[in-house]
Design brief:
By secondary structure, this protein is an alpha/beta fold. It has 2 domains: 161 residues, 3-Layer(aba) Sandwich (Rossmann fold); 158 residues, Glycosyl transferase family 10, C-terminal domain (Rossmann fold), CATH 3.40.50. The chain contains 11 helices and 11 strands. The strands form 2 sheets. Strands 2-1-3-4-5-6 form a 6-stranded parallel sheet, with helices on one face. Strand 1, helix 2 and strand 2 form a beta-alpha-beta unit. Helix 2 crosses helix 9. The radius of gyration is 24 Å and the shape is globular. It starts with a helix and ends with a helix.
Length: 362
Amino acid sequence: MHKKNKKILLSLCFCLQTLTSSYIISKNNIVYIQPGSFGHIFQKHCDNQYKFLRDLKKALKNLGYILKTAPKLNNLKNAASIICFDVPKDQISFLEQYPIEKRIVFLWEPPTTKKYNYKQKYHKYFSKVYTLLDELIDNKKYFKFYCAHSDFNIINETIPFTEKKLITLLTKKKNRIHPLSLTPERKKIIKFFNKIKSDDFHLYGPGWSKKDSKYYKGIAKSRPQCFKKYKFVFCYENAKNLPGYITAHKILFPMIAKSVPIRWSTTNVLGHIPKNCFISYQDFNSYKKLYKYLKNIPEEEYNRYLKNIEAYLNSYQVLLFSSEYFIHTFISSFLPDYNKNIAFTKEQLITLNCVFKSLSEN
């Protein structure tokens, strides 16, 4: 090649490289998550509980976006969107340096744990507010999202009815004072079984000790593997009387483990999870009556619950809690016309289309 032509070609390559680099640097292709109480959201967690966040990262990468955590909200570069997991109360003023259409919040925690999440003075800092609470939804400012669960596969092992222990509660020891808190009810459960001195009940979870309950069994490594040994599992939410507030892992892990969940009431799950898949404490209104029912339930009646649960876990309805639907909700919050065929695998698209079918049928 002639030296002059070679020099021109090299010069053109340099210019092209510079232009390309400038495009990449200036392109607003970073999606920031302010993780709140989620902490290190891309690390592996017990029971794959947060696998949906790692799947989200892959879907965004397919679309040409980079997903990053932003514990600090100041001076974020090249932001396509800034999505907060719960209201970042102590950093709220930093948000004003970014266009409001880029600011979105997902309210994961209920008012019993983060009261400020539901104060409208904080919501004005966001273009969209995604919430679990049905009563807030207007599809203008407030939108519905479902707490994602990564696995709906029922465990293979079947423990016979006669070999299962009766009932368990797995929860952290907390002391939450709020009118809607169910922490006091969890303590009442423990107190009741302490009083009757029954080994039919076992307690698991961090913070407890044998001083709290003679039947404390330590920390379970896996919820499903723990729950499969029991006929029933207390799975009260952190807040009561809030339609739509469902933390999926609380009720779905017992189902996957072929155990029957016990809820405080039907209020939170009404219209989302069939009543024939769980037992409501408020149908009894005393732990004495509830215990008598659980202790004496015929095997045939118990198995009906398990069949109802299996039918639900094999239905399109449960897929509202799927990773795919959460990822779709998340991406749509800032990119409503994204290409689903690029974001998702063929298998994921099948799941997502099943969700859409379920929604259209309802």
